[in-house]
Specification:
Layout: H1 13-29, E1 37-40, E2 47-49, H2 53-58, H3 79-87, E3 96-98, H4 100-107, E4 113-118, H5 123-130, E5 137-141, H6 144-150, E6 159-163, H7 171-186, E7 191-198, H8 201-213, E8 219-225, E9 237-243, H9 249-264, E10 271-278
Parallel strand pairs: 1-4, 1-6, 4-5, 6-7
Antiparallel strand pairs: 2-3, 7-9, 8-9, 8-10
Helix pairs in contact: 1-4, 1-9, 3-4, 6-7, 7-8
Subunit structure: Monomer.
Binding site for S-adenosyl-L-methionine: 19, 42, 100, 118, 143-144, 164
GO molecular function, one term: 23S rRNA (adenine(2030)-N(6))-methyltransferase activity
């Protein structure tokens, strides 16, 4: 199935969480001069027009980035992320939203490398065109999970691997665990960041149990819910599973999540979570 288009959901509360975590990890890796690899298994189109038919149809960005955009009270932990959004909107009007590849492009340095994979026949050429003039980047059309075998370990032995599938099929929840297991075999010191939606809580519990069963250590869970768990249709929360997180990531997210929750869930429903699924 290739029906999922992120353009309907760009800039929503799940993107805010995902891209905040992504930005903080990149910022941390950049503190050392040595280069590193950024690998994005499900990269999408790269940039999203917020007044497009898709984005306007759902309006999800207005309850996500729209509530943070140019907010003078935004905590310092959000500055790397918000700087990437600002760079794509130099006029000061929120017109475009950067997907994870463009956030990486904004934050990475000249010595770092970018590997992007996208399978969707419409999104792939858009992504390729975004990076035509970026010598750091390689863009491929194909199965992102295969990149975990083909591109790891990187020569520099440092890297962030972002895994962000559409979860169109229930099998995706198992596929991400299998992909992480394969990638970790090749690159046990890499930072692996897995995004997940909370539609049915039981699916997340099962996925976490499968990750624990891999024997991998240092697994951190970060979650932001804007509504309570429900058995009704729709995403109430999203989260990031980070393997080998930078040492300060947990504290940074504990500091910023209450503020984010207040902005993204004004009614105060839902929850935030920073939890070690598997410690050292």
């Amino acid at each position: 199935m290739l029906s999922y288009r992120h353009s309907f959901h760009a800039g929503n509360h799940a993107d805010v969480l995902k891209h905040t975590v992504q930005s903080l990890i990149i910022q941390s890796l950049s503190e050392k001069e040595k280069p590193f690899l950024y690998l994005d298994t499900h990269a999408g189109a790269g940039r999203y027009l917020l007044n497009s038919e898709h984005a306007e149809r759902t309006g999800e960005y207005m309850e996500g980035i729209g509530r943070l955009w140019q907010n003078p009270e935004a905590p310092e932990q959000l500055q790397p992320y918000l700087s990437a959004v600002s760079a794509l909107n130099p006029s000061g009007r929120l017109k475009y939203y950067p997907g994870s590849p463009l956030i990486a492009r904004h934050l990475l340095r000249a010595q770092d490398t970018i590997e992007l994979t996208e399978l969707h026949p419409t999104d792939y050429p858009l992504l390729r065109n975004e990076f035509l003039k970026d010598d750091r980047a390689r863009v491929a059309r194909g199965d992102g999970y295969q990149q975990l075998k083909a591109k790891l370990p990187p020569a520099a032995r440092r890297g962030l691997i972002l895994i962000d599938p559409p979860y169109e099929m229930k099998s995706d929840y198992q596929a991400v665990v299998d992909g992480i297991r394969e990638g970790y075999k090749r690159f046990a010191t890499g930072v692996f960041a897995l995004w997940y939606p909370v539609v049915l809580r039981q699916q997340i519990k099962r996925m976490l149990s499968e990750l624990q069963a891999t024997g991998i250590k240092r697994i951190l869970q970060i979650e932001l819910a804007v509504r309570p768990d429900s058995d009704q249709r729709g995403m109430t929360a999203s989260g990031m599973i980070v393997i080998n997180p930078p040492w300060k990531l947990a504290a940074e997210m504990e500091a910023v999540l209450p503020w984010l929750h207040k902005q993204l869930s004004p009614a105060g429903t839902g929850h935030t979570l920073v939890n070690w699924v598997v410690p050292e």
